[in-house]
Amino acid sequence: xxTVGVIVEYNPLHNGHLYHLQQSxxxxxxxxxxxxxxxxxxxxxxxxxxxxxARAEMALRAGCDLVLELPVAYSSxxxxxxxxxxxxxxDATGVVDSLCFGSExxxxxxxxxxxxxxxxxxxxxxxxxxxxxxxxxxxxxxxTAAASEYLERRGLAEHAYSLTQPNHTLGLHYLMALRKLxxxxxxxxxxxxxxxxxxxxxxxxxIASATALRKLLLGETGSLEQLADYVPDSTLAILRREMExxxxxxxxxxxxxxxxxxxxxxxxxxLSAFAEVTEGLEHRIRNALAELPDISxxxxxxxxxxxxxxxxxxxxxxxxxxxxxxxxxxxxxxxxTGIEYIRVLGFNDRGQRxxxxxxxxxxxxxxxxxxxxxxxxxAMDARATAVYSLAFRNPAPSAAMRDYTxxxxxx
Length: 411
What we know:
The chain has 411 residues and is of the alpha/beta class. The protein contains 20 helices and 8 strands. It has 3 domains: 3-104 and 337-410, no CATH class; 119-164, no CATH class; 252-331, no CATH class. It has helices spanning 15-28, 52-62, 72-75, 79-93, 109-118, 123-134, 139-153, 166-180, 210-218, 233-244, 256-265, 268-271, 281-289, 297-304, 311-323, 332-336, 349-361, 376-389, 397-400, 402-405; strands at residues 3-8, 32-38, 66-70, 98-103, 186-191, 342-347, 366-367, 409-410. Strand 6 (342-347), helix 17 (349-361) and strand 7 (366-367) form a beta-alpha-beta unit.
C-alpha cells in the first residue's frame, strides 16, 4: 500500500483542505493519508482555535488515516524549521512514500531547481543572507532577498517569482528539507484554488481560507452557522461541540493574563534568555509595558511592531515567553538534530495498520502518550497543552494533563 503525507494546521479544516486531501490521494495514487499536524500553537505564533484532539478528529473524518503531532518546538517556527520538522517527521515514519503540498502555481520544476541550488547552503548564498540579516531584515525577507540576488547572479532571475509567494516559499523549504534529510519521499504539488493563503475576505460560495473563516467566526456578528457553506459537516459538528463545552474558539486574547504575568515578573536579562528575543527586543518589551493603555495582546503587538519586528515575529516571541521556551532548547544546532519521537494524535483502521508497520520501520520511538517518553520536546508539548487549557471557559486539571491521560482519537 502506498501512503501520501500532508502537512497541515486545520485551523479549522475547510472545503479547500478537503479538496487537497482528495486530490493528494488521486495524483499520487495513494491508498492512505498521513497528516503531520501542528498541535495547540501554529506556525505564525498563534494559538489554534480548537485543541489538537478536536482538529485531529476533523482530519480523520475528512479522510486522513493517521494524524501525527508536529512538536511545538517546530510548529511555531519560521518556514525553514517548520518544514524541516514536518518533513523529518514524515520521513521518520518509514511508511510515507510521497508528500503533496499546495502552491500558487501547481508547478514543481521551478521549486525543485531552487531547492537544488539552495539546499546545501552555498557559501555565496549564506554570505548574501547574512548581509541582509545585518541590515535588519526579518529572516523571511532576508532569505527572499538573498535568494533572489543569488539567482540573478546565475542568470536565473525568472525563478525568483516563486520566492514571493507564501505557499511557494513553504513548498521550497519542504523540498530543501527532503534533500537535507536524503529522504526517499517523492514530492508533488497542487495548485491552490479559489482562495489565496491568508486571504481575509470570502470570494467564492464554497471555498474560503482559514483566515477568513476565523475572522468570520470571531467578528462581532459572527456565528458558527456562517461557516456552514465553507467547511465539511463533520468540522461544523466538532466546532459546535467544542464551543458548547467552552473549549473554542481560542485566540490570543484568551492568554492575556498568563502572558502579562510572565512579562511583568521577568526583568530584561531574564527576557533575553527566551527563544526569539533577539536584537535587544527585551528592552523594547519592557519599555512598551509601561506605556500600554490596557492589558491586551493586540495592543502590545501594535506597540512592539516595527519594520524589523514583524507581527508574526512578535507573536512567536510572545509565544516563547508564554510557554517558557528558552534559547538553548531551540537553537539551530538543537533543531537540526531532527525529530526525536513520533506522537500519535488519532487514527482509523487503515491508520492502525500503518502504526503496525511503523513499529518495524520507524526511525524513532512512536508514542501514544507523553508519559511514554522522556524527550525534552515531548515535555514541551505537554506543557503547551497545560497552558492552552487555561483559555477554556472552565479550566480543569484533567484538560491540563490530557497529554498524559488520554489515548489517541480513534474512528
